[in-house]
C-alpha cells in the first residue's frame, strides 16, 4: 500500500508543465502560487521530466531559473523538490560536511534511516554530482567511533535481502557482553551488530536483549556510549523499530519551542513525501496529540507554509 502524500499527476504532460512554469517566471516578479501548486501536485519522477522538457523547450536549466526567481526557505524547499531523492540526499550531505564544522545531525538522520538501495543510490549520486567519494569525504570530516559507524552504514549489507527472520542468538548476548557486563564498553561490537544486521534480525535481538537484561537496548546505549556516537546509535535503533516514529519525533523537535530548524523540516518533508508521510502523520497525531498539519500551520508562514502543507497532504485533527 502506498503511504506517501504526493502521487503521480493524472494526465501528466511535461512540456505543458514546463511552459506553465516558464510563464509563471516570465517578466517582472513571479507567480509563486502557480509554481508551488504545480510542483507539489507532481511526483518527483514527473518533476525530473519537467526539468528535461524545460531544457528542450527553452535551452535553460529549470532549477537555476527557480533559484533566480525565488528566495529564502521557499526557494530551498522548491529546489529540493526538483532533485531526484539520491541527489537531494547527496546535496544535504555535501552541505553538512562543507566548510568549518560538521552538521552531525544531518549525517545521522540520512545515514541511519535510508534503506540499502537508497544508500547505494546516494553513493552513486554523490560521485556523479561532485566527482568525489562519499566515504572518503565522511572519513575526512568525522572521527572516532562515530566515523566508524557511518562508514559501516555506507556499506550495503547482504542480510538486508533476507526474507525470513534469523534466530537472534548470539547477537543479544554479544551486545550484553560488549556493554552491561563489561568494564568499559566494546564499541566495535555495537558497531558490528547494529550496522551489519537486517531489521528483522535486530528487532528479534532487541526483544531478546530486553528479556535477558531487563532493560531496553536504548537505555544501555545511553549508559554505555556518549556524544554523537550515542546519538547515531540511538537513531539506528529508532529507525529499526519504526522509521515513521523516528521522523515524527525529528519533525516535532524541529518545530517545538522558539525558532524552527528549517533545514530539518524541509529535508524530512521532501524526502518522506513519497515514502511514508501518511504513517508519519499518524504517529505524530498519536504521540503529540496534535496534527503535523496544525503544527506546520502554526510554525511557518507564506508560500513556504503553503508548500509544506501540500506535502503534508491533509489534516488529522
CATH class designation of the largest domain: Mainly Alpha
- Name the CATH architecture of the largest domain: Orthogonal Bundle
Let me know the number of strands: 0
The chain-level mean pLDDT equals 90
Question: In the CATH scheme, what's the topology name of the largest domain?
Answer: Annexin V, domain 1
* Structural class estimated from helices and strands: mainly alpha
Please give the count of helices. 20
Q: Approximately how much beta-strand content do the residues carry?
A: under 5%
Largest sheet: none
CATH-level-4 superfamily name of the largest domain: Annexin
Could you say which overall geometry the principal axes of the C-alpha atoms support?
A: globular
Main location: membrane
Organism: Anhinga rufa (African darter)
GO molecular function, one term: calcium-dependent phospholipid binding
Keywords: Annexin, Calcium, Calcium/phospholipid-binding, Cell projection, Cilium, Cytoplasm, Nucleus, Phospholipase A2 inhibitor, Repeat
Structure description:
Belongs to the annexin family. Its main location: membrane. Calcium/phospholipid-binding protein which promotes membrane fusion and is involved in exocytosis. This protein regulates phospholipase A2 activity. It seems to bind from two to four calcium ions with high affinity. InterPro entries: Annexin (IPR001464), Annexin_repeat (IPR018502), Annexin_repeat_CS (IPR018252), Annexin_sf (IPR037104), ANX6 (IPR002393). With 317 residues, this protein is mainly α. The protein has helices spanning 14-25, 32-40, 44-58, 62-69, 72-82, 85-97, 104-113, 116-130, 134-141, 144-153, 171-178, 187-196, 199-213, 217-224, 227-241, 243-255, 262-272, 277-288, 292-299, 302-312. The protein folds into four domains: 14-82, Annexin V, domain 1 (Orthogonal Bundle); 85-154, Annexin (Annexin V, domain 1, Orthogonal Bundle), CATH 1.10.220.10; 170-239, Annexin (Annexin V, domain 1); 243-312, Annexin V, domain 1. It has 20 helices and no strands. It starts with 13 loop residues before the first helix and ends in a 5-residue tail after the last helix. Mean pLDDT is 90; it is low at 158-170 and 178-184.
